[in-house]
């Protein structure tokens, strides 16, 4: 560059110090209109939802780039916002299906193609389902939750027909086909990259798509951003309105808020409750909060350790928690209370629901005395460092409150990876934690969290044969009998309180006013396909 | 010169060996169980054991170490489990981001600190000297994470002078054609003014936060060595020969005084790399500092090891460069070796 | 002693800034010792009704998310922050001075091992190494102290080594050796005391860095346990509130942190001027 | 000899402000140097010889301050000149060479360029022909192979060679006055003689006045026309060399001479002068700063010192001269 022209251009740049120079604005504005900028805290680590160690942001990538056979319908929630409908299954790759007590037969959409132009056939579907039940780990577990367990169950009848043979009658089988796990992969492409050691091409699919979904990936900078481009040949649903989506990582919550408020970013999930509470009042932004189905923030106690093996101690703790203060000071109202009901009896077959506990220190003290701990005891209260923004103030309030009944709790922050390990060991005496299940059925939640099979989510190590029997039975029954079973295990959970429910979190999302069409999904990731930017 | 380079390289090798051992031990001490973490929430103990086996975590520590060193010699730093990418590739893509930020901060710091130090030395004992001392000491007393937050709030949120803290370049601009990985250089080389301007704007706040932090050691070293040189015999000679104050201070004093400052640069650089971690977090800067923090929090061994190793090599390379530059400026070193 | 005092007076009169630093230091010391007594509120007591109130006559620095008085928390945090810094500096001194003196005095293998150790530590970006150590040893305050001490160790070791090396053959050391003292005795009884002044200067110079380091670690969530008040973690807590306008939560602890580090840095300079004017830069 | 003073110093007093108080380094110092004349300033270390030279050159440390006096040079008072005007004089009209020639040269600049810097500065040469002029200067100070030496750095040259470079720098612009501050310290004996001869020869060529600062009386006697003896910031005696050697009048001068047994023994080696220099920080310094050490002290020695002319250009400051 010649010196003179350089001086000239720097002068131009200098003059435009606060705003972008006009000559660039037009192109930029054009790009902005067709682009959705999503800002978030954590990056995806894989393109393959069935891979080992795939994290939650990767589910979003998978959800928007791959097709599934069927998907869920939509309804309006109490606030008039779109909400997926877990009772209504709708076509995606399959145009229609026929379910008998022994099998389900799916007709595949004609003309549907993968991103590389290969037609999608039943062979691909079978290969994909085989993969999901064979790779082990999380995807296989999730398939099993719907009694989808063996490759022999999946049959490619002809190019356009696919059949699933049932192992047993399970009401979760059909819903389970609509969850993010059983994606349809381009089997021809995958096989090219499979090796003897890696027959399911796990290595390759981690970094590459073999998909046919609504979006393609234009650029992926691990840890930084993913740029999605609309697949204009997509046939398995209405063509999305948004042409390009940038999913950018912004680690600081404060910066995320600032970006939204300044109008620089379009949409974000990851803000502290207080920011959502305030942004909801702002005329510039839309904030939608949806109660997360089948989810709760709770205080868990290790029932296999003294003194929490004593049910009276657990009840004392349940009566001593500063519920309302947590709702106000920690959640700023962005949650639904799970306390202060009329009594500790189930009010119906929905979950989660309010129990009868509320803050009542004298009652808690009496229970402590009755349990033989009139002077209290010392313990530790742990939480995951990754959830510090809510759990830190929450545990501080709990600590302060428990002190009133003589329990001296030391707060222990555990970094993410160690947290998982500690949960597996089931040795922490008291934890503050969250759990949410994809499928909105009480017995699904209880199966993971209260059942004596002692899954990792049963963080309290709770075992009660009576409860196990009720849960097991409820999984495969319907009608009045089912209602009674659900009521039964909820009542036990409330009475025994191995975990004290505190509140049901909201899935909050803040977006610019010109963004519409947001839909709540059980997987709590953003579905780009319905969004509109005007 | 070559001999000097080789002998420096030789002394650096034991340090690198030390680093490899320390890093290995440090990461194996981390209390987390990566196998449990990556097996997913619903994993059975068998599944976890299998993953542990695949990761080689069930072997004895010496065996793991041997395996690790073997991989290293093949240029394999392993895969990051949390981003799913080979560590070598990730570090390669992220290093330019950190290097650009750190070097830019260093240049800003040098551009401010050296004149400041010279001024303070020339005006020794005056209010300028005291002011310089107070300002640089205040700078090094600022926690970088605090400065960064404050800057982002004031200059982006309140005043809107700075762009959104979203990384290296405005989201709606595409990065310049990859040549060196340094956006400023690449965009300048390709004549992509839009990207150059965008990258420069993004760079300003984090770089200044870091530069403020590193003013003090540079300014002080400059002042100190300037004072020492100004009091030396040859400056007296130069003054006695009637050379103009300009010539005395710049041609005679400064060129000599800058030698110890060059040595200080190494220390300041390592100082800046530490500050990098915090600044990258605040400004969403996609560099290796941020990468290392995230890896550390998820007990992701491979990136942590790779990061530290890269740092050690970088440090050695930097010291070599410093020796080299020193030699260029100082004929005594150049001609002696 | 008298000439030193006269010299000190001269240095202070020449450099009023150092006097100011001494004053500030006294204030911090008072806050560290009497903080809990002086605090107008219980620093741990939450008060939902008073949450997120801006600075006022009742709450000079405002209140935080849980309604705790920030002034009281900042005041009480002084003790923890200074304790971490002091403890780590003293630990670094003990590790560094002993091994450095031994290295400089004995030379040979001792020197090589200590030198190698120091080089290895210096090859890391220090803050990242500190993060690694805290993560590896466990998320506790004591480990912040250890980590900070380890990363400061090479500085002490190098200074001590150089000083001991110079003094190895000094007259008084030779005299002590000739009067029948063992090497260890000469080292501890004669060489070590002689390098104390310069080590004192080193300690005051690294105090500021030790505070910053500890605050940086707790800023990213390592070390200090809630509900304990500590400046770094308070800035981290406040960081989420800056963009929503509650600037006081991060500002006051951050400013106090800065002031403390500033004070120690000035103090270190001043002390160096008093003890060893030659080192002044 | 026509006595036209090239430099006339009158009533020069200098103070140093230090961390431990104000030091009166020079008090009422006065002497003169004629054109073409070589005058030696002689005294123990710390007697104020170099400070006198620095004060005249205007290159005292920041801590030093001239409190009184004049230094008349070609009609101008050097002490009254501003820094800019003084800088014009230095190197062109008055030059100085120092002891320890190796440290007195810029270690990272080629010696040829250091000479050229001075030439260019004072208009002795243009930037283009300065390198050649520098080589000419090297030839004048008899450096063998000057083209190659011009490209050398000081550390590559011997001490004697460096002093020749210093001389070349000092004489580059043919100054009227040269101050040589112990130019032979740190050089071996044969080199000393060569350097002294060189200075004398070059001075003689151009009729330059020379002030030769030394603690070596024998050397002073050999090369200088007159000798000025300094003690603790005072001039105690000034006389032509021959006269001083024949008949020193000040007790201190006498002691000095007596303590100079051979030609090569320096004053530092001598312990025969009792006592040391007084602490110049004292507020109760006696009028005669030698009186504490003096065997001939009288009661009147506390009164301000007389300047007694005792011979042709021979002055002594003593109440009780020999």
Task: Describe it.
The complex is a heterotetramer of chains A (534), B (337), C (281) and D (322). Helices cover 34% and strands 24% of the residues of chain A. Chain A has 534 residues and is α+β, with helices and mostly antiparallel strands. In chain A, the strands form four sheets. In chain A, strands 1, 8, 9, 10, 11, 12, 13, 14, 15, 16, 17 and 18 form a twelve-stranded mixed sheet that branches. In chain A, helix 12 runs antiparallel to helix 14, helix 16 runs antiparallel to helix 17 and helix 17 packs antiparallel against helix 18 (479-496). The longest helix of chain A is centred in the C-terminal third of the chain and has 18 residues, at 479-496. Chain B has 337 residues and is an all-alpha fold. Chain B is built from 14 helices and no strands. Chain B has helices spanning 2-29, 34-38, 45-54, 61-73, 87-122, 127-141, 144-158, 183-190, 193-230, 233-240, 245-283, 288-297, 301-329, 331-336. In chain B, helix 5 packs across helix 9 (193-230), helix 11 (245-283) packs antiparallel against helix 13 and helix 12 (288-297) packs antiparallel against helix 13 (301-329). The longest helix of chain B is centred in the last third of the chain and has 39 residues, at 245-283. By secondary structure, chain C is mainly α. Chain C has one domain (2-41, 68-280): MetI-like fold (Orthogonal Bundle), CATH 1.10.3720. Chain D contains ten helices and twelve strands. In chain D, strands 6-7-8-3-9-10-12-11 form an eight-stranded mixed sheet, sandwiched between helices. A four-stranded antiparallel sheet of chain D has the order 2-1-4-5, covered by helices on one side. The two termini of chain D are 28 Å apart. Chains in contact: A-B, A-C, B-C, B-D, C-D. At the A-B interface, helix 2, strand 1, helix 5, strand 10 and helix 9 of A face helix 2, helix 3, helix 5, helix 7 and helix 9 of B.
């Amino acid at each position: 560059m010649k010196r003179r022209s350089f001086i000239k251009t720097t002068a131009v740049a200098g003059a435009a110090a606060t705003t972008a120079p006009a000559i660039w604005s037009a192109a930029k504005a054009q790009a902005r209109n067709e682009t959705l900028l999503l800002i978030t805290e954590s990056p995806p680590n894989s393109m393959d939802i069935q891979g080992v160690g795939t994290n939650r942001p990767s589910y979003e990538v998978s959800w928007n780039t791959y097709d599934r056979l069927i998907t869920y319908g939509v309804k309006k929630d109490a606030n008039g916002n779109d909400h997926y409908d877990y009772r209504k299954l709708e076509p995606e790759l399959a145009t229609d299906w026929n379910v008998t007590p022994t099998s389900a037969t799916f007709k595949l959409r004609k003309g549907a193609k993968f991103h590389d132009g290969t037609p999608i056939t039943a062979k691909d579907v079978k290969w994909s389902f085989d993969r999901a039940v064979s790779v082990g780990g999380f995807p296989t577990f999730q398939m099993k939750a719907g009694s989808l367990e063996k490759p022999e169950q999946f049959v490619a009848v002809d190019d356009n027909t696919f059949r699933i043979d049932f192992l047993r009658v399970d009401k979760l089988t059909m819903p389970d086909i609509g969850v993010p796990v059983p994606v349809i992969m381009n089997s021809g492409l995958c096989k090219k990259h499979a090796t003897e050691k890696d027959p399911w091409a796990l290595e390759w699919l981690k970094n590459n798509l073999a998909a046919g979904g609504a979006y393609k990936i234009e650029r992926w900078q691990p840890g930084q951003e993913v740029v999605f481009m609309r697949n204009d040949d997509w046939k398995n649903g209405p063509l999305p309105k948004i042409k390009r989506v940038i999913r950018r990582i912004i680690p600081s919550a404060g910066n995320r808020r600032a970006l939204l408020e300044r109008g620089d970013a379009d949409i974000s999930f990851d803000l502290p409750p207080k920011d959502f509470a305030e942004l909801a009042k702002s005329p510039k932004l839309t904030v939608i909060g949806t109660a997360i189905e089948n989810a709760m923030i709770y205080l868990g106690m290790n029932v296999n350790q003294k003194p929490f093996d004593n049910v009276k101690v657990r009840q004392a703790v349940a009566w001593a928690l500063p519920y309302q203060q947590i709702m106000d000071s920690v959640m700023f109202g962005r949650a639904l209370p799970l306390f202060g009901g009329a009594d500790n009896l189930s009010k119906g077959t929905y979950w989660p629901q309010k129990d009868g506990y509320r803050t009542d220190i004298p009652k808690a003290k009496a229970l402590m005395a009755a349990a033989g701990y009139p002077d209290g005891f010392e313990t530790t209260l742990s939480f995951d460092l990754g959830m510090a923004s809510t759990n830190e103030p929450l545990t501080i309030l709990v600590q302060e409150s428990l002190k009133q009944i003589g329990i001296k709790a030391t707060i222990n922050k555990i970094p993410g990876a160690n947290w998982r390990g500690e949960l597996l060991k089931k040795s922490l005496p008291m934890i503050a934690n969250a759990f949410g299940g994809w499928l909105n059925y009480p017995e699904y939640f209880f199966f993971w969290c209260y059942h004596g099979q002692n899954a990792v989510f049963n963080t309290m190590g709770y075992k009660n044969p009576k409860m196990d029997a009720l849960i097991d039975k409820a999984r495969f029954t319907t009608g009045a009998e089912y209602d009674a079973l659900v009521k039964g295990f909820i009542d036990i959970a409330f009475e025994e309180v191995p975990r004290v429910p505190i509140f049901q979190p909201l899935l909050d999302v803040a977006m610019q006013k010109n963004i519409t069409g947001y839909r709540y999904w059980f997987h709590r990731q953003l579905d780009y396909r319905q969004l509109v930017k005007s | 010169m070559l001999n000097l380079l080789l002998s420096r390289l030789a002394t650096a090798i034991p340090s690198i060996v030390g680093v490899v051992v320390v890093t290995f031990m440090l990461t194996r001490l981390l209390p987390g169980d990566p196998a449990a973490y990556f097996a997913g929430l619903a994993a059975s103990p068998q599944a976890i054991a299998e993953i542990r086996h695949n990761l080689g975590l069930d072997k004895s520590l010496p065996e793991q170490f041997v395996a690790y060193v073997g991989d290293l010699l093949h240029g394999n730093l392993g895969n990051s489990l949390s981003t799913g990418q080979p560590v070598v590739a990730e570090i390669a893509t992220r290093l330019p981001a950190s290097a650009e930020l750190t070097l830019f901060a260093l240049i800003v710091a040098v551009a401010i600190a050296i004149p400041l130090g010279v001024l303070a030395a020339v005006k020794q004992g005056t209010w300028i000297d005291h002011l310089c001392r107070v300002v640089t000491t205040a700078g090094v007393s600022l926690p970088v994470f605090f400065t960064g937050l404050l800057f982002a709030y004031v200059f982006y949120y309140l005043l809107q002078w700075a762009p959104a803290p979203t990384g290296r370049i405005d989201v709606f601009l595409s990065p310049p054609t990859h040549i060196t990985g340094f956006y400023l250089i690449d965009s300048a080389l390709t004549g992509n003014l839009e990207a150059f301007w965008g990258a420069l704007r993004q760079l300003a706040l984090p770089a200044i936060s870091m530069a403020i932090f590193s003013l003090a050691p540079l300014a002080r070293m400059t002042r100190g060595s300037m004072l020492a040189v100004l009091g030396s015999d040859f400056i007296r000679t130069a003054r006695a020969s009637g050379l103009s104050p300009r010539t005395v201070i710049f041609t005679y004093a400064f060129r000599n005084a800058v030698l110890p400052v060059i040595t200080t640069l190494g220390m300041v650089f390592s100082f800046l790399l530490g500050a990098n971690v915090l600044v990258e977090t605040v400004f969403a800067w996609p560099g290796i500092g941020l990468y290392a923090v995230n890896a550390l929090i998820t007990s992701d061994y491979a990136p942590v090891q790779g990061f530290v190793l890269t740092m050690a090599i970088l440090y050695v390379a930097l010291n070599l460069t410093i020796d080299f530059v020193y030699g260029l400026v100082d004929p005594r070193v150049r001609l002696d070796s | 002693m008298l000439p030193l005092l006269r010299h000190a007076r001269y240095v202070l009169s020449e450099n009023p800034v150092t006097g100011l630093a001494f004053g500030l230091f006294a204030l911090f010391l008072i806050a560290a010792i009497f903080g809990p007594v002086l605090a107008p509120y219980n620093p741990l007591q939450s008060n939902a009704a008073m949450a997120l109130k801006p600075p006022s006559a009742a709450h000079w620095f405002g209140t935080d998310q849980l309604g705790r008085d920030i002034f009281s928390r900042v005041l009480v945090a002084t003790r923890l922050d200074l304790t971490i810094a002091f403890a780590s500096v003293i630990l670094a001194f003990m590790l560094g001075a002993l091994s450095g003196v031994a290295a400089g005095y004995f030379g040979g293998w001792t020197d090589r091992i200590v030198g190698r150790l120091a080089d290895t530590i210096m090859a890391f970006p220090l803050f990242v190494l500190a993060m690694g150590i805290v993560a590896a040893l466990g998320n506790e305050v004591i480990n912040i102290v250890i980590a900070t001490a380890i990363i400061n160790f090479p500085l002490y070791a190098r200074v001590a080594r150089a000083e001991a090396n110079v003094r190895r053959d000094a007259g008084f050391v030779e005299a002590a050796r000739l009067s029948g003292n063992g090497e260890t005795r000469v080292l501890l009884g004669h060489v070590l005391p002689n390098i104390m002044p310069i080590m004192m200067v080193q300690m005051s110079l690294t105090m500021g860095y030790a505070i910053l380091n500890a605050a940086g670690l707790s800023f990213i969530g390592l070390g200090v346990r809630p509900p304990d008040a500590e400046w770094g973690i308070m800035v981290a807590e406040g960081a989420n509130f800056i963009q929503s306008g509650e600037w006081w939560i991060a500002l006051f602890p951050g400013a106090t942190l800065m002031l403390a580090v500033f004070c120690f840095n000035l103090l270190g300079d001043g002390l160096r001027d008093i003890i060893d004017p030659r080192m002044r830069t | 000899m026509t006595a036209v003073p090239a430099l006339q110093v009158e009533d020069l007093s200098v103070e140093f402000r230090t961390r431990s108080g104000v030091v009166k380094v020079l008090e009422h110092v006065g002497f003169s140097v004629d054109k073409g004349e070589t005058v030696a300033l002689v005294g123990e270390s710390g007697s104020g010889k170099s400070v006198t030279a620095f004060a005249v050159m205007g290159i005292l440390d920041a801590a030093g301050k001239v409190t009184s006096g004049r230094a008349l040079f070609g009609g101008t008072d050097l002490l009254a000149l501003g820094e800019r005007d003084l800088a014009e004089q230095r190197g062109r009209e008055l030059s100085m060479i120092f002891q320890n020639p190796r440290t007195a040269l810029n270690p990272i600049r080629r010696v040829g360029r250091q000479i050229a810097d001075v030439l260019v500065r004072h208009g002795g040469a243009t930037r283009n022909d300065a390198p050649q002029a520098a080589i000419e200067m090297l030839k004048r100070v008899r450096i063998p192979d000057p083209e190659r030496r011009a490209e050398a750095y000081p550390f590559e040259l011997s001490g004697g060679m460096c002093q020749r470079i210093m001389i070349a720098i000092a004489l580059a612009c043919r100054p009227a006055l040269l101050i040589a501050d112990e130019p032979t310290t740190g050089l071996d004996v044969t080199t000393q003689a060569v350097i002294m001869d060189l200075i004398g020869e070059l001075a003689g060529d151009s009729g330059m006045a020379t002030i030769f600062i030394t603690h070596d009386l024998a050397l002073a006697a050999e090369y200088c026309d007159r000798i000025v003896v300094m003690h603790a910031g005072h001039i105690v005696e000034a006389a032509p060399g021959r006269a001083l050697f024949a008949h020193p009048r000040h007790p201190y001068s006498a002691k000095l001479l007596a303590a100079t047994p051979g030609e090569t023994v320096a004053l530092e080696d001598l312990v025969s002068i009792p006592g040391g220099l007084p602490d110049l920080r004292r507020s109760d310094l006696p009028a005669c700063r030698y009186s504490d050490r003096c065997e001939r002290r009288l009661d009147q020695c506390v009164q301000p010192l007389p300047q007694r002319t005792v011979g042709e250009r021979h002055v002594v400051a003593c109440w009780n001269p020999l």
